[in-house]
Amino acid sequence: QVQLVESGGGLVQAGGSLRLSCEPSENIVSINVIAWYRQAPEKQRELVALYTTDGSTNYADSVKGRFTISRDNAKNTVYLQMNSLKPEETAVYYCTANKFGNLYWGQGTQVTVSA
Question: What is the predicted pLDDT for the residue at 87?
Answer without folding.
Answer: 97
